[in-house]
Amino acid sequence: MDTVVTTLESMFAALGLAKDLRPLAAFGVMAAVAYLLFLIPIYIAVLRHRMTRTAAAFWIFVSPWVFGFLVFTAGPMVYSLALSLFDWDLVNPAKFIGIDNYSRAATDPKVAKAIQVTLTYAVISVPLQVALSLAVSLLLNMKVKGINVFRTIWYLPSLVTGVAQVILFLWVFNPNYGLLNGFLGVFGIEGPTWFRDPHWALPAVIIMSLWTVGGNMVIYLAGLQDVPTELYEAAALDGAGPLRKFWNITIPQISPVIFFNAVTGLIGSMQIFTQGFVVTQNGGGPRDSLLFFVLYMYNNAFKLFEMGYASALAWILLVIILLLTLLVFRGSAFWVYYESMPTKAKKKGKKNVRTA
């Protein structure tokens, strides 16, 4: 691959192309060749009547996504999996070491600490985000004058994320002139030093995560407005109060939405990076209290240049997320309600009808 790229760049150099544009031009040529190799078999299959024109059109239209997925997602994943079996510092030639990187991770106390910090953050922040966004969406689902203004106000903070959000909260949690400690001081309470305190650094990041509940709120609002009003009317005729309606109608009807927000929130929380990176200035915070797993992986890759070990950590994180997601999916059978009848139930219902 390096030989091909070097040859292409030399060719563009001979043509007088600017040095900075040569890698991009080489990538464009390689992408065009790969795309032709994808289209030619389709064209031949259509000519030999082994594929319909409709099927060929389908593959041609989805081919940009397939190409992008293979080049920018699947390709780097396969490369990182192979790299996890090597010891490579970006300078010296890579050395094959088998599963030593995974064995090292199993005995690395920093990995255990990073998993503990990340799981603690996920277990606390995700339920809080789900509960708060649901409570806000219930309030904003009420039919009152100017409700759209309140919805907009609640959603606006979701637009300030990433580094801008962290910088904002660095001021909010500042122990000397921060907004939160100033508010606590009004009641005679001396606030903690937040990000400088190993006991309060992670709670501060968890509180920070509630800033972006507006995105989940919009999804909950869509789910709430899809609940049939006939169910509430029938429940009212039976004498059900607001709490009973919420527990027996609203929660089951929007349980797929709650499940979606919980799963996406869990996956996102396991990949938290920016908060720890900006707050701790590329470190792990006091006593590694903010040493998130992705931050530790980043430090190994781009501070210590241990690319093989960092790749192994990436695959360990992928396995952890897959296991947690699988656990949530298995548990969803007990509390998520879908209006469509399960296949087994349908067969059972048909069997009962034939028996009758």
Write a structural description:
This protein has 356 residues and is mainly alpha-helical. The protein contains 17 helices and 2 strands. It has a two-stranded antiparallel sheet. A hairpin with a 7-residue loop joins β1 and β2. 19% of the residues are buried. The C terminus is likely disordered.
Descriptive terms for the model:
two-stranded antiparallel ribbon; 356 residues; 70% helix; 17 helices; globular; disordered C terminus; mainly alpha
Main sheet overview: 2 strands, antiparallel
Q: Count of DSSP helices?
A: 17
Q: How many runs of DSSP E, i.e. beta strands?
A: 2
Order of helices and strands: HHHEEHHHHHHHHHHHHHH
What is the CA–CA distance across the termini?
69 Å
**Strand proportion:** under 5%
**Alpha-beta content class:** mainly alpha
Instruction: Assign an overall shape.
Output: globular
Mean pLDDT: 88
In helices, the fraction of residues equals 55-70%
Could you list the spans in which at least 5 consecutive residues all have pLDDT below 50?
348-356
Strand order of the largest sheet: 1-2
Radius of gyration: 27 Å
